[in-house]
Amino acid sequence: MKSDNLNILRAVSIVGIIIGHGCLQIGYEPVGRFCGYLFVQIFFLLSAYLLGIKYGNTSIGISFLVKRWKRLSVVYYPFLIIVICSILLLGGNVTWKNVFTHFTYTNYFLQDTLLGVPLGHLWYISMMMLCYVSLLVLQKKTDFLFHGWWLLVLSVLTLCVCVVCLRNHIPCRIPIVVTSYLIVFKRAKDICSWFSKLKNIPVYIYTFTLLCNITCFGLFLYWNLNDKLLIRDIIVLITACSWLLLFMTALRDIKCGKVLGFISTISFELYLVHHPFVLGDLSWLNVGTLTGNILINSFLAIIVIFVGAFILNKIGKFTAKAIG
Fold this sequence. Notes:
Layout: H1 4-26, H2 29-55, H3 62-89, H4 96-103, H5 123-137, H6 149-167, H7 173-186, H8 188-196, H9 203-222, H10 229-248, H11 258-265, H12 267-278, H13 294-323
């Protein structure tokens, strides 16, 4: 089910994330936040859908969780080791808490970051592992929750949990991401079956996607959604769903070329590597950094990011082969 259009969507998403974080760094905040939040959410939906196609009708056991942990860790752990060693060699500070939380995938939930903003993007790794664990917890006997009126009950319950999270200063994106992940995973085969029966693409799919994106970007542009966290996360989720809908229907027959295929293949590595070079105190997009010319800096950053991601991808493959 890893068809060309979903690989293209994965490639577009990682490029969108890099552009979004770059826009945040140079001051184009509405564009940056729109791209950052939207395309990261698309990554969660893609993961849920593809895993749902593969495992949706089977019981999830510990072996599944171990397999997913290995899949992340063979790339993530080498990246962490390189980052921690680099920080220490440059005279920076790394605490035992930093090491523990990041290697146990709990950094986001314990509000712990390495170097602050430059490596703040690692919250995504914590959330992804939580989504995997949630699949293990909600076994097949809970399938009724994802059909009919129970879906509405589940949605209302999620909103209630979001309100509780907000009142206790806990990110409401946690229950929203987990619930949406579970729904897409549990209904992935139904979604695929429905899409496969579509012969003519309904006009409403184009219209829905366009309206979602205009609304979402407009709110980021004219309304400070960072002060409206629940509204932000719901709107971003709906917009991300519209992208998935578009690529699985209207754009389902497009072919993935070599360039987009390559970007898709190393998308996870690109996500890990890009952030320190693009956003935060270490960013090469800072005025006066390196050459002093932001265009040249951006070009150099892109080269380093892609080369670093490619090398990290090879390290991950070697590690995976070594541990079996």
